[in-house]
Specification:
heterotrimer; A mainly alpha (about 140); B alpha/beta (about 180); C alpha+beta (about 650); B: about 180 residues; Glutaredoxin; C: about 650 residues
Chain lengths: ~140, ~180, ~650
């Protein structure tokens, strides 16, 4: 009788409490999971990450990522497993390789040019300025 | 010096314009497969309606189309007659029944015709995941050694068969004769 | 019949455009004043014709005239009235008509409010605006005509306005955004007129500045509203995704911000004239680029209009002609513009140049990130994606740098280099700001159960306090030295309000990303969960009906301890017109914190996947944004003495 009561109570508790949609054996996995979902692109959608997409492929990939996390793979390996199958397209954080040198380095070059410009704007002296103008006439 | 600086914006703009122009012919949604030039992933699944367990080894020996399909996929219904037609022309097609229910799949093929030499039954989508499937229907062209040569996402119709698959398929067939 | 009137009005407007284009040339040729005097009536005529056309399209929607294809595609009899009106600009063709209307309005404005500039200069500006109108009118009439009929049999019922657009946001976001986007055509026309004439008077740039400020303010408001709308409408709690369409509106905004600051330098000191002209051209050029990106299908986006490569070609040609033409003009005639000697040393001017450098760099970075997937694909370097991780990586430090220099500029002077004086003035704010920020962040960790130490929160507090404290220091000094007139000056007031707005925005962005919590749960009616000090009880699940949809609605009660604080009712709507299901989030805010709940998917009988967020300070993002816009409007009321 006591056991029946205990069983019923635990049933009630489990009914009344919300459950994590996806449960992990280790809480640290959850944070990594949420970060990964934000960095990975849904292959089929019009520019959405896995976190925000409800497409069937997104749900499948979410389960796959959960499985890989539980297997103990680190983030790099999980991303590699996905890019091997879905190409680099699936990464919102582009890799740094010879195809993306320009993408990652150009901003720094732009800023360097910018600082040089600021420096030249503040130290131009009067003589060279009027010399330019004379030449143009 | 000043002339160079003044011309920089127009040069930068013309370059951008060139890319945008080329971009108009480009389809940003078209995602090529990551597996082109690579082998079919290893797998161990059984066929639809049969007890045999298959591995990728059994797929070697001849070029074929691998068609990813499912009964819940509306576009697959539209594509199906084309596949039946192709199988009548002698094109070898192997099906990959993706995340589907076996009985529904069986009935579907009985009802609409079976263009497949056989269909691999992949209810959990394991092989699908390894192939990089993201939206049925998808069709892969695989050569006799199991190397993936081409992938098309979306309905395979006559035009796409002619433009993207036909020549390659027959070239691969000739290569093994 | 009404659609035909609309159509004819457009064709007549085309004629007025051609006339507006031609009259300045006739004046130069024949030197007869009459050609100049025509410009005002022509501009008004043009505006009235476009307005007539716009009203005709609106009427077609209101009377459910489904023989007009655009109406049939975007409306139906069940659509609520207010959305029938906003459906006018809900898709490509109609939104272009709105664009034309706004351009017509700005053109008429220039025609009537140009007393400080010469009639000749004004007529040049109007020619430029007329060419732009002409281009868009041709585009509208020949490729995107909203008045096209479905013949011979009109459908009895229409399609639907995209459910995501059936919202308050559609009513004001595009008009605000276009007022900004299109308003930047005025400084563009100004720059072309300056290049044609070869000189720029100080009074002229003074005349142009309010136009820049107002267009910029509208653009700020439009972008802010768009972000807020995406937040509450799209159902996943994000407010900025670095999506190509979002970037397309951000880039002109960044350049326009730089332009606002550089035109201030040019007006006060007569320096960096060529730079200001270049920025004026760049701002509208980026608007045009944005228009191209959004409507051509070249980039993938959730926000893009229905795309069509044929339209893309037309827009590209317009882009080439307008932007290419103006930049060619700049390359050949830019050297004629006389500029004063740049001041040396640590001056207000230098700090604004740094501001410009940072803003332009940020624009280029956004442009590279947005276009790189396309470039990579075309050059066969592979198909890649560039998303928030890339943009955030560069944007966060540059924004912090902007904040640092903004604070420094409060203590700088225009005319003299005063590095040591500046440094002395900022020591105290700097010290207070660092100590307070460290204290606040550790206090938050110590006293709240929910939040731990966060570096991004620390940097946010430092940046925000720095901006506020340097502003206060400046005002304090001005009051003490009895420079009260400066404070009452609307320019200074506007600047202060806008900079405070920016600080508030940074506060919202930084703290909401540092301290937000999110849970994805399966819940059924009766279940409860605890997040971040709140208890959420999923009280009931209802099936409800709206005017044109049916929905599953979840009612969630929010408790702090035993007190019921309120409820939210997120919905999953299925619209009768048969489109995809839409999610409507339930949001509750007390301004300092947002509680955001949205329904995911039904799992089985009455269990749903539910996403719950607690987002502190997220409202401040949009409060800050609107404050920035208000500051811009205030600053444009400044009366200038020549």
């Amino acid at each position: 009788m006591r056991y029946l009561l205990l069983f019923l109570i635990s049933l009630l508790i489990s009914v009344l409490n919300a459950e994590q949609l996806i449960t992990f054996s280790d809480d640290a996995y959850l944070k990594r999971y949420q970060n990964l979902l934000e960095e990975l692109r849904c292959p089929k959608c019009q520019n959405q990450n896995l976190a925000d997409s409800n497409a069937p492929i997104s749900n499948d990939l979410k389960e796959e990522i959960q499985r890989l996390l539980e297997q103990g793979l680190d983030d790099k390996d999980i991303k590699r497993a996905l890019t091997e199958r879905y190409s680099d397209f699936i990464l919102y954080d582009p890799k740094f390789n010879k195809n993306t040198y320009f993408l990652w380095l150009a901003p720094f070059i732009v800023l360097l040019i910018g600082f040089w410009w600021v420096y030249s704007m503040s130290t131009k002296n009067y003589i060279s300025q009027s010399k330019d103008r004379d030449l143009e006439k | 010096m000043k002339k160079i600086l003044l011309s920089a914006p127009i040069i930068f703009f013309l370059l951008t314009l060139g890319f945008l122009y080329r971009g108009l012919e480009n389809d940003p949604k078209h995602l090529p497969s990551a597996l082109i030039g690579k082998n079919i992933p290893t797998f161990e699944l059984r066929t639809l309606d049969a007890e045999n367990v298959l591995t990728q080894e059994q797929l070697l020996g001849q070029p074929f189309l691998l068609n990813v399909w499912a009964t819940w996929c509306y576009a697959c219904r539209i594509e199906h007659p084309m596949l039946v037609e192709l199988s009548k022309r002698g094109v070898k097609i192997i099906g990959l029944n993706y995340k589907d229910q076996e009985s529904l799949a069986g009935d579907w093929l009985d009802d609409k015709g079976d263009p497949y030499i056989f269909s691999i039954f992949d209810p959990d989508g394991k092989l699908g995941f390894d192939l990089g499937v993201y939206g049925a229907p998808e069709t892969y062209l695989v050569d006799a050694y199991g190397i993936i040569m081409h992938k098309r996402v979306g309905v395979l119709d006559e035009r796409i068969w002619q433009n993207e698959f036909k020549d390659k398929y027959y070239a691969l067939e000739n290569a093994i004769k | 019949m009404i659609a035909e009137i609309g159509q004819i009005s457009l064709i007549l407007a085309l004629c007025t455009c051609v006339l507006m284009l031609v009259t300045p040339i006739l004046y130069t040729q024949f030197q007869n004043g009459i050609w100049l005097r025509l410009s005002r009536p022509l501009a008004i005529n043009h505006l009235l014709l476009i307005l007539t056309s716009f009203i005709c399209l609106t009427v077609c929607f209101l009377i459910d005239d489904f023989s007009v294809r655009y109406v049939a595609q975007n409306s139906n009899t069940l659509l609520p009235l207010v959305y029938k009106v906003s459906a006018v600009w809900g898709a490509h063709e109609g939104s272009l008509l709105l664009w034309m209307l706004v351009l017509g309005g700005w053109t008429a404005g220039v025609a009537f409010l140009g007393s400080k500039i010469s009639a000749k200069f004004r007529s040049h500006m109007l020619s430029v605006l007329a060419i732009i109108s002409l281009g868009f009118l041709l585009f509208l009439i020949f490729t995107s005509n909203p008045f096209e009929r479905i013949l011979p049999i009109a459908p009895e019922e229409g399609g639907d306005l995209n459910p995501l657009l059936q919202d308050f946001g559609l009513i004001i976001h595009p008009p605000l955004l276009y007022m900004g986007y299109v308003g930047l055509a005025v400084p563009f026309a100004f720059a072309i007129a300056v290049l044609i004439s070869g000189t720029m008077e100080k009074e002229y740039i003074a005349w142009c500045r309010p136009w820049i400020n107002i267009a910029w303010a509208f653009l700020t408001a439009g972008i802010t509203l768009g972000s807020w709308w995406a937040y509450y409408e799209l159902g996943w709690g994000g407010w900025w995704f670095w999506d190509p369409v979002e970037n397309a509106s951000l880039m002109p905004w960044l350049i326009a911000t730089a332009l606002m600051h550089s035109s201030s330098v040019t007006e006060k000191k007569g320096t960096i004239v060529t730079w200001t002209i270049l920025l004026s051209i760049a701002a509208f050029s980026l608007s045009l680029l944005g228009t191209f990106l959004v409507r051509s299908g070249v980039l993938t986006s959730v926000h893009a209009f229905a795309t069509d490569p044929e339209r893309g070609v037309f827009l590209l040609v317009m882009l080439a002609l307008f932007v290419g033409g103006s930049l060619f003009l700049f390359a050949f005639k830019g050297h004629k513009l006389a500029s004063n000697q740049n001041a040396n040393g640590w001056t207000r001017e230098l700090l604004l140049v740094i501001n410009n450098m940072l803003l332009v760099s940020m624009t280029i970075i956004v442009l590279i990130g947005t276009l790189y997937p396309l470039v990579s694909d075309i050059l066969n370097l592979g198909k890649i994606s560039v998303g928030p991780p890339y943009f955030d990586f560069f944007f966060v430090p540059t924004t912090v740098a902007l904040a640092i220099f903004m604070g420094m500029s409060a203590s700088s002077r225009w005319s003299t280099s005063n590095l040591s004086e500046s440094m002395k003035r900022v020591i105290l704010p700097l010290v207070i700001c660092l100590i307070s920020s460290i204290f606040v962040v550790f206090a938050i960790e110590a006293f709240s159960r929910n939040y731990s130490f966060s570096w991004s929160a620390l940097i946010t507090f430092i940046a925000v306090l720095w901006i506020f404290l340097t502003l206060i220091e400046d005002i304090h000094l001005k009051l003490r030295t009895k420079m009260v007139g400066v404070i009452k000056n609307k320019s200074f007031l506007g600047m202060t309000v806008a900079h405070c707005g920016l600080a508030i925005l940074i506060l919202g962005v930084g703290l909401s990303s540092a301290y937000s919590t999110q849970e994805d749960l399966r819940m059924k009616p009766g279940s409860s969960t605890y997040i971040s000090g709140y208890r959420f009880n999923f009280r009931e699940l209802n099936e409800i009906e709206g005017p044109n949809y049916s929905a599953s609605q979840g009612v969630f009660d929010i408790y702090v301890g035993d007190n019921l604080r309120g409820s939210v009712a997120p919905e999953k709507r299925r619209y009768f017109s048969g489109r995809d299901v839409m999610t409507e989030a339930g949001i509750r805010t007390n301004l300092l914190k947002d509680i955001y709940i949205s329904l995911g998917e039904p799992i089985n009988n009455n269990e749903w996947s539910v996403r719950l967020y607690v987002k502190p300070m997220v409202r401040f993002i949009w409060i800050g944004g609107f404050l920035i816009a208000v500051g811009g409007i205030i600053a444009s009321f400044n009366r200038r003495k020549s």
